[in-house]
Amino acid sequence: MKKTYTAKQVDIKRKWYIADAKGKVLGRLAAKIASILRGKHKPIFTPHVDTGDGVIVINASLIKVTGRKLKQKVYRRYSGYPGGLREVALEDLLAKHPTTVIHLAVERMLPGGPLGRDMIKKLKVFAGEKHNLTGAKPLVLEA
Q: Domain 15-64+98-128 belongs to what topology?
């Protein structure tokens, strides 16, 4: 009788990857990063266990979007109070907070709930070339 493999905490070996967002398309890069954070690139992948690796993203301000998304895409959040709907265009958000754009794109590709919250903690995004995680010895992510 065959049994389904379930990853245990002792089996999980975590690595760090570094992704350069310069000239990359936002959605494609976010999908690759979400897959790494989730652990789908590993043979020990288990859907209900966080088997993923960490990802460092640099040059977030130089990300590319296709079509007319810069003008048309709108990020919304609602406080729950009357008149509490806030909207900001992708173009404005990319100019003020480029790290938020990548963070939101990846976060929305991960599962909701406690598992997704644990996975998104392993994502570090930097607007420029420099990052402070050199001690992690990240491997280059080909995306």
A: Ribosomal Protein L13p; Chain: A; (3.90.1180)
What is the distance between the terminal CA atoms of the chain, rounded to a whole angstrom? 39
- Contact call for residues 23 and 58 (beta carbons, < 8 A): no
What is the amino acid identity at position 38?
R
Q: Are strands 123-125 and 16-20 parallel, antiparallel or unpaired?
A: unpaired
DSSP 8-state class, residue 85: E
Nearest Cα neighbor of 68 from 93, 86, 89, 87 is 89
125 beta partners: 57
Name the one residue in this structure whose structure tokens are 């994502």.
Answer: 123
pTM to 2 decimals? 0.92
Give the domain ranges of the chain.
Answer: 15-64+98-128
User: Minimal CA–CA distance to 59: which of 129, 124, 106?
Assistant: 129
Q: What pLDDT was estimated at residue 103?
A: 97
